[in-house]
Fold each of these.
Amino acid sequence: MPDFILYNAPQSTCSQRVRYVLHAKGLAFEEHKLDLFTGDQLKPEYLAINPNGVVPSLVHRGRAVTDSAVIMEYLEDILPGALRPEDAFGAAKMRAMMRFIDEVPTPAIRVPSYNLAFLPHYQAMTAEEFQAVCDAKPLRREFLMKMGRSGFPEQEMNEALGRLERGVQRMATWLSDNGGPWLMGEQMTLADIAIMPVIVRMDDIGLSSMWAETPAIQGWLDAIRATGAFTDTYYYGSLLTEKYPHLKTAKPELRVAGSGL
């Protein structure tokens, strides 16, 4: 059995940041790709690893570590590298950034993602099937219930876009205050990797206009895309537009402001 086994999904933003850390550290790992729409994450054998029924989960020498932010820090703990400042204050500053990222833009990007790409899957369910899926996901139950089988309403969409805009503004402030090219200056940290999937997803579904007036963010995106770990992380099928080609010609700014698709 390999030392590291990653249970994840190609398009899962939380999975993407863990994959990036694994590749950045040059770690060999066995990847199990779960099909979230067929319910792989709700099967008893996976729930025994992660009772929350979400991805990713990392099994290291037979012991499971869950939650993407926790996994990223765990990997840095067991294999210290250059992804976390060595001084306590710098590490605390990085963790505060990660807390903001996990509380503001990360949950917000799920709303347009679900309405633009994932909603048809739930629309095809009966009311009973949909309720069963919601009840089986303790960390996502309320989120899915708000979406329902008709999509998030305009108010929810506008709130999500507002949170994404605040995330972009905060990111711009970090880059400006610390001089770039990374959020904390010259050193890439776990904070950069934490926000990476949000910015990549926004760019993929046509929301990059939010940083049109902030070239530093586009420069940051270009820089992280140029890393070897990025290429390995975003293999084909990791972007929504690769699985749902219609998104390439969609008008996200207009569609997410309305209800449903």
Note: The longest strand covers residues 4-8.
Amino acid sequence: MWFPIDLHCHSTASDGGHSPSELVQLAHQNGLKYLALTDHDTCAGLDEARQAAAEQGIELINGIELSSIWANCGIHVVGLGMDPDHPSMQQAQAQQKQARIKRSEQIDQALQQRGMTGVLERARQFGASDALGRPHFAQAMVQLGYVDTEVEAFNRYLGSGKVGDIRCHWPSLATVIGWIKESGGVAVLAHPLKYDLNWRRLRLMLNDFVAAGGGAIEVSYGGENPHRIIDLVRIAREHGLKMSVGSDFHRSEFHWSQLGKYPPIKGDFDPVWQEWGIELEAG
């Protein structure tokens, strides 16, 4: 099953390659009827996206993707349907902004210790200082000739467990779920099989996720193995979680993740979008 909805994507407000309005235009071209803009740790792109969505006849759902820590593992939680002006969401963005600044400085220090100088200054050409992410560092490293491709930058220096994977400044999983819930949103576990957790640890994490108020899990997302979708649907049902879908789209040149594209869903499906009265037929 595929639905004309994408509940996980990024714009230039964080580390995406398209402006919010360009992203909405692309969503229209790709046949989407509903879209959630979920930039990393910021709601800065929502106003522009909302205006563009009204012009294109697309319903925009407020979104954000918050970084957190669980058992020393970096976990991303998507917030959907929250009020970006609520004090809790304002607090979330302010705290994450400071965390990103400190994290960027530490990533740069770690890279300097390996002979790579000037990366932070170059990364700031691709994103605001308070919104820098590892993809901005990867772009800078390519431009400066330290690696040949952004994929190499992640594989050698920035990916999970590598020297540039700095996590110490992120809040706890329970904290970010609280921010989302308090601001009227649904907390969704993003891309659950990207955390290098085995099935046992994933279930333990989901127990804590549910206990803290988490409400949904992405069961299909860009780049995931289609054969594992049925396992994710089963785990969602075991934990009483609603199910979400999203491409995790960043940039058009990333062929493995295109807006509105994710593996077909297998198994009984309990969609999170029914929380907002949205009824969709599978394509």
Note: DSSP finds nine helices and seven strands in the chain.
